[in-house]
Amino acid sequence: MDQIPLVDLAAAHAEIADEIRTGFDRVLARTAFVGGEEVAAFEREYAAFGGVAHCVGVANGTDAVELALRAVGVQAGDEVVLPANTFIATAGATARLGARPVLVDCLPDSYLIDPDAALAAVTAATRAVVPVHLYGLLAPVAGLAAALPSHVRVVEDAAQSQGATRDGRTPGSGGIAATSFYPGKNLGAYGDAGAVLTDDAELAATVRSLANHGSTVKYRHDIAGFNSRLDGLQAVVLRAKLARLGAWNQARRDAAVRYQELLADLAAAGRVVLPGVGEGEAHVWHLYVVRVPGADRDAVVGKLNAAGIGAGIHYPTPVHLTDAFAHLGHGRGSFPQAERAAEEILSLPLHPHLTADQQQRVVDALAGVLG
Questions:
Q1: Please, are residues 119 and 105 in contact by the beta-carbon 8 Å criterion?
Q2: What is the mean pLDDT of the chain?
Q3: What is this structure's pTM?
Q4: Domains of the chain as residue ranges with CATH
């Protein structure tokens, strides 16, 4: 029986292959390998899609987080508040610029940053809070930003939320956000790529300069920057996929609704806890994440994988329990909601080309594993 992948990049490529070849030919003919018109066009198009004034393409999502932090003035020695439940790159980007990650717990239902915990962690040394938009759902940025003292800025990690809104707000609107175009994202390149999104022209100019060796004019370097630029070939891929992203996100929403229906009996029996969507939240379902309380989650994932179901775990270890950030001094029990999520959650296959028959197979397999 055919495998059901967690993400089907081959199906996405098949849909745009001819367009990609034509676009690559344009880049090769112009030899515009770094920057160029394809990059400029993508930046305009993605800014319009995301409802912000400026999009600055960079080399990857981790760089995007660091560049956004630097743009709002975070420096070595400053504190940056971020959730323990996130991909390690959020903390890594903070540490790379010499700032100190200050971890807080997540909410028990959405697994997003706990706004009250974030506010409680703010000190005179805090310069930014980084709410992470997880699984396709936006964190409560507006309320958090309004409650923060004036010396603290919000920098959104929007790597998993391309096309999502909360109360009509998009990532970066009225502030600044970083996103990733890693291949598995809703909008994925054919390699590493990322962007910083903002309505603030000054912040956008700072990011663009920092990412280009501190330069806006060739061989004139006003600040010490580094090299993090989007290349023309990746921009071709991103433009082709962006033209389809609205439809692909809707296909993800449709698949999520099917999962909710197919998994209803398991949920009623308490075998799985399904994700929810609150009022005003437009989810784009980067991942479909369920909890399996009372089960050996790792064994469940292993059995699903053995049955050809590409289940995954996002994420198996909270930041504070990784060796990389053990020096922060948080032992097991420090962030109970993040730790519970790490032990119980699993991601089921979800992508725009997933069929209803495949979803039925996924649910049947999960029901069989859970007994």
A1: no
A2: 97
A3: 0.97
A4: 9-239 (3.40.640.10), 245-370 (3.90.1150.10)
